Amino acid sequence: MRGITCITIYKYTKFYIGSRFISKKSIIITVERIITGIPGFDDILHGGIPKRNVVLLAGGPGTGKSILAQQYLYNGLLKGENGILVALEEHPVQIRLNFKQFGWDISRYEKENKFAIVDAFTAGIGEAAKREKYVVQSDDFHSLLDVIRNAIKDVNAERVVVDSVTTIYITKPTLARSMILQLKKVLSGLGCTSLLISQVSVNERGFGGPGVEHAVDGIVRLDLDEVKGELRRSIIVWKMRGTSHSMKRHPFEITGDGISIHVDKVVQEVLERE
Q: Can you give the residue range of the structural domain that contains 151?
């Protein structure tokens, strides 16, 4: 099933209006979903991320954003769903090492053209960068979109991660929403289900970038809060078009196997952010 579920239900309703008998058929179609494979995540999403959704993965430093995103990509590879990672803030070599720390070996998938890293970090500078297949040579946004588009088509990608999308508009905050909408057109238009990592400061209550939260289909917020003198991680789905979802904040942990969300637990006590 390639991690996708889709069900069509026909519901028949019979009722009376006065003395008149009415029979009505309604069609309920559940959305096509991408199963993330991250323990607990699909549960709080009530079945996975709706296909083609562009989801903002927001959080402060140390919350586990990149780990969750990489876990999402690797689980897709295991299911036969190809993917790409757009690296804007970290060298591709370091990203491959980050994958390996959790035992996620992406090298064979790169060799088989099932996974690719789009290097939007080095601008082609350095010996290691010269070995990268997809390199964005300038800071031009449209050049970035062109390379992403080509990589998706070449790899036949279904899952995409942009790490981090904040880098794209950090010097042009007034254009943030417009740039995200252009990126969304490329990703959704090519059939991808995507996570856009958004950086927020420790005390920031928003999701990063003016108007960005309205341009995306979903928002997932990861937090690291001090509770009774101890740092605790938590996750909450703020919105997700096309599906219902948990309205509660759930604790999660980062283990040697990646992120695991405790669906049966709820974070009830969090210190207010200033």
A: 33-261
